[in-house]
What we know:
By secondary structure, the protein is α/β, with parallel strands linked by helices. The protein contains nine helices and eight strands. It has a five-stranded parallel β-sheet with strand order 2-3-1-4-8, with helices on both faces. Strands 6-5-7 form a three-stranded antiparallel β-sheet. Helix 1 (13-24) packs across helix 9 (201-211), helix 2 (31-41) crosses helix 3 (44-55) and helix 4 runs parallel beside helix 5 (90-102).
Amino acid sequence: MNVVLLGPPGAGKGTHGSALSRHLGLPHISTGDLLREAIAAGNSVGHRVESIVAEGRLVPDEIMAEMVRERFQAPDTSGGCILDGYPRTLEQARMLETILEELHRRLDRVLNLVVDDEEIVRRLSGRRVCEGCGALFHIDNAPPRRAGRCDTCGGELSRRTDDDPEVVRRRMKVYRKSTEPLVAFYRAQEILREIDAIGPVADVRERVLGAVA
Ligand code: AP5
């Protein structure tokens, strides 16, 4: 099963992508994580995308296509995957169709996580990420047991540089202009499911799991 998680910044794609991955036993592929890993590794892709990601703009479609195509070569994706943050433009959606067709696979479900702007700002201003294992926390909604430390690996928690309020505003604008049109694109293909992503994480998770049952 190949599933795409769609939604604005902070909608919960990472949170529910991990849960879905565990539930379905499929890899969770977050293009944001892949880009941050490339930046941390300091490789050539990392150098090309670092300022783009920091400013909340979209990385060029060709770079993303190469990255996703390469990730799909890994054997763990043969049974399907959970795509989080890709596609983000109509061009990327068409490219994903091509990549999947080449592999004789198809996209089964697109889950659109719906949240309002006020909630996005609240979530992103309180988000903390483990520098060690990438686990997600929120200072109010999902606080760590020990302040500033990851519950899973004890790593240090930090704020993502693109969670700065000005960058968040740009990311939301980019989402509305370039990514939101994908909702109509996938609705027309009758594979879209709308998920009310407001409320306790456990309740939203139930809705997400229900939508892929
Ligand atoms: P990416 O990392 O994909 O960022 P994003 O799409 O903006 O999404 P986020 O990771 O910010 O949020 P999320 O929806 O995963 O929410 P989360 O679960 O963390 O991309 C970063 C950048 O990389 C982009 O800006 C772009 O530059 C580049 N990029 C990536 N993919 C690209 C592509 N395909 N093409 C071009 N460029 C690309 O949750 C947020 C917080 O809310 C957490 O603290 C969580 O604990 C909390 N939370 C979650 N659910 C709930 C709930 N129900 N109630 C209360 N709190 C909750």
